[in-house]
What we know:
Non-ribosomal Peptide Synthetase Peptidyl Carrier Protein, Chain A, mainly alpha
Amino acid sequence: MIKNLKPAWVDEFKKFALKGNVVDMAVGVIIGGAFGKIVTSLVNDIIMPSVSMLTGDTKNLAELSYALSAEEGAPVIKYGVFCQTVLDFLIIALTIFWAVRLVCKLRAKKAEPAPEPPAPAPTPEDILLLREIRDALKNK
Length: 140
């Protein structure tokens, strides 16, 4: 009585979602999110306190800011937070670059055909002459 209740796109979505590349991409996004947290902690808790020693009184570089006016509630430019975010990006970008570079090198090595064995060295002329003499003696 009741025919197929599911819309036609459900089967198409299943095919898409269960492809290997999509699952690999999902795993990559999850690992990337976790990696981003590690990099943020590295920058906030290790690198920036070391860098902030160079700035003097500031204990945390993220606290560096510039108030646009002396009034209470005036807009503030938080350039310390911006520096931390840029550093996060650079570390993540370099890490991804190295990972992609490594994968490309591994794929290139895997794709290279096995080297052909070297061609045998040509037979020396004196050996050829001796063979001709031998064959001539056999025929007589």
